[in-house]
Amino acid sequence: MTFPVFTSSQSEPLARGKELGTHLRDQILRNLSGYTDLFTVAGASGARVRAWGERALDRSAAWAPRLAEEIAGIAWGAGLEPWQVAVVNARTEILAAIDAGGAADVTGDGECSTSVVLPASGPARTVQTWDWHDHLRDAPVLWEYEPFPGHVVRTFTEAGALAKIGVNTAGLGVHFNILRHGSDSADMAVPVHLIARRILDEAATVAQAADIARSAEVSASTVITVVTEGDAGAVEISPAGVSVIPPGPDGVLLHCNHFLDAGLAEGERHATDRPFTYDRQRHLRDHVDGLSDADLTVRALAMLGHGPDDAPVCAHPDPEMPINQRWETIATIGLDVAAGRMRVHQGGPCRVTEATWQEF
């Protein structure tokens, strides 16, 4: 099983977006439908979601006009309104807005776990599980595009979303985990997925990535773990501020779904509902030897853990639960920042073998 791959041939944002929207129309429509169902179950009306999408598009256009153009192009190609594609890109912000209003019920055992190890010699060693709601398991796509000549970006993202996890040929890669903070609000601002996109398009260092994150006003929280050949930093983003968590003296940087910065951790929200994030962080720390291995398959297997007797790093959905409480490890991903490539396995670590990796 592999994820769909699309390579853009267009260089200008509007044309690139239209090309993508045309080729991935059916998948984008299914993705939008899946998110519409998720927002409805979580407690948001269609009119409210539209208002949030329009607001997110306006804020995006002010912060990154070329990316707003690309969203408009995707909508054009897919036969949608731009606000509908903005909704896909702002799904983190919309869920945070619903939660801020007290309507959301987002308990469960899933979410993402990220490991980066910078060895004393040799390439950076990374691996991440990407957990999301199982009815959206067909949303991901592997997308290659060239934002400017000679700079290639490869990203694992959701159809219609401008970026998520990825690498660029400047030697930088990003992992992506959701966070929740007391300052998250319904005052829709720049989507965090667009921050990841600009980092992939523009940054070659952790410091440059952090500057891009600090330039955006946000309404929801996330952590973008940035890695280069000799450096790494978990860029924790929230409306209360941005902090960069460096690797430890051993070169290890681990992140799940709670804030590690002491100041931002005072406003922690995610772990209130999902304390398993701490169990997953401990699991990663306990398996650092495997996560440090040069072999990505060994690193992926070191992530393996199933609840309730072990940390639920590898999530499997309970079909009896409503869709907003069903979690599945949809992908396991390792980055090769030196080559500007990634390897992706469709599913969780419990099914990884050397033969299941998709090279991208």
TrEMBL record:
<dbReference type="Pfam" id="PF03417">
    <property type="entry name" value="AAT"/>
</dbReference>
<protein>
    <submittedName>
        <fullName>Isopenicillin-N N-acyltransferase like protein</fullName>
    </submittedName>
</protein>
<dbReference type="GO" id="GO:0016746">
    <property type="term" value="F:acyltransferase activity"/>
</dbReference>
<keyword id="KW-0012">Acyltransferase</keyword>
<dbReference type="InterPro" id="IPR047794">
    <property type="entry name" value="C45_proenzyme-like"/>
</dbReference>
<feature type="domain" description="Peptidase C45 hydrolase">
    <location>
        <begin position="127"/>
        <end position="348"/>
    </location>
</feature>
<dbReference type="InterPro" id="IPR005079">
    <property type="entry name" value="Peptidase_C45_hydrolase"/>
</dbReference>
<keyword id="KW-0808">Transferase</keyword>
<dbReference type="InterPro" id="IPR047801">
    <property type="entry name" value="Peptidase_C45"/>
</dbReference>
